[in-house]
Amino acid sequence: MYKAIFAIGFLFFGLPLISVAQDTTAIDRILAAYNGENPGASLLVVQDGRVLLQRHYGYADLEHKQPVSATTNFRLASVSKQFTATCILQLVHQGKLAMGTTLAEAFPGFPAYGNTVTVKHLLTHTSGIPDYEDYVADTAFNPQIKDQGVLDILMKLESGYFKPGTQFRYSNSGYALLALMVARYSGQPFAAYLQQHIFAPLGMTSTLAHEEGKTTVPVRAFGYSATDGRWVRRDQSSTSAVLGDGGIYSNVLDMLKWDQALYTGSVLPIHWIDESFAYHRLAGGGTVGYGYGWHLKQTKDGHKAVYHTGSSTSFRNIFYRIPSRRFSIILLTNRNEPREEDMLTLAELIAEVLRP
């Protein structure tokens, strides 16, 4: 049996839990697959700065029967991109680089196809930069590719997918390059910059960009893949050491602190946060439903939702926010299912159950 963690009136990092009149058993039904002796899930729902609901299911470590809890740290995968984007925007705000800074300026000797690729193109996935994962075998573990290795791959190519700014095509490469830009223009390694300028100021004491051999993830969830009817630990892939596109580990408590900071401008001025949540235009006039590290969409009742899913080897996550309602869902899991796009469906089902 799983242990549902849910309290009323308890002060939690200064945020009081509130009574949920809705049928919370519906949430347990939606997330039933994570229950029992399975890879698990950690759920936190926030309304108006208060914890509306917490649920934790299954195991973070099957071999040692360690249950998922509020302090379990999961690999965020692409949910990491919003932090990479924030680092870049901080540096832009400080005048250390510009949204129009090109790859040729940032990385001398970059091939000609990068001459017109800008920071903004990288942030919005409109750069046309090829995805490095197409050039890395999944069996290439010795050593795993890192952010610098992504640049090395791109330096050997002769062209991108399309003229920058004319199309949207999601590319993890762009965010690896952005992480390298953070290091180049700040003078600090990317992981250290994150720690000093985002995680420490917000009190996100368990969150880190994990570098094997250098750092240890506390209370770590390990990833599992369904294989021949059983769960097999498959925590890493050949690309898991790249930081800028998906290398951050965190838990729902720390992500709650991040969620609330997005309303206050404490680590980034509000106008930059607003622009991060804005639709952007393509050169031909089309609209891009992606801001700076955030997917964008409209809810059924007309509110803007900003979210990001995360999918890497044996992790599936979503951070889903409706800023106008001050409503957020943080759902972190350590298994290789469902499909990444289905995490959005899960979040929207949960939102529908809890909608006031």
UniProtKB/TrEMBL annotation:
<dbReference type="Pfam" id="PF00144">
    <property type="entry name" value="Beta-lactamase"/>
</dbReference>
<dbReference type="InterPro" id="IPR001466">
    <property type="entry name" value="Beta-lactam-related"/>
</dbReference>
<feature type="domain" description="Beta-lactamase-related">
    <location>
        <begin position="28"/>
        <end position="343"/>
    </location>
</feature>
<dbReference type="InterPro" id="IPR012338">
    <property type="entry name" value="Beta-lactam/transpept-like"/>
</dbReference>
<feature type="signal peptide">
    <location>
        <begin position="1"/>
        <end position="21"/>
    </location>
</feature>
<protein>
    <submittedName>
        <fullName>CubicO group peptidase, beta-lactamase class C family</fullName>
    </submittedName>
</protein>
<dbReference type="InterPro" id="IPR050491">
    <property type="entry name" value="AmpC-like"/>
</dbReference>
<keyword id="KW-0732">Signal</keyword>
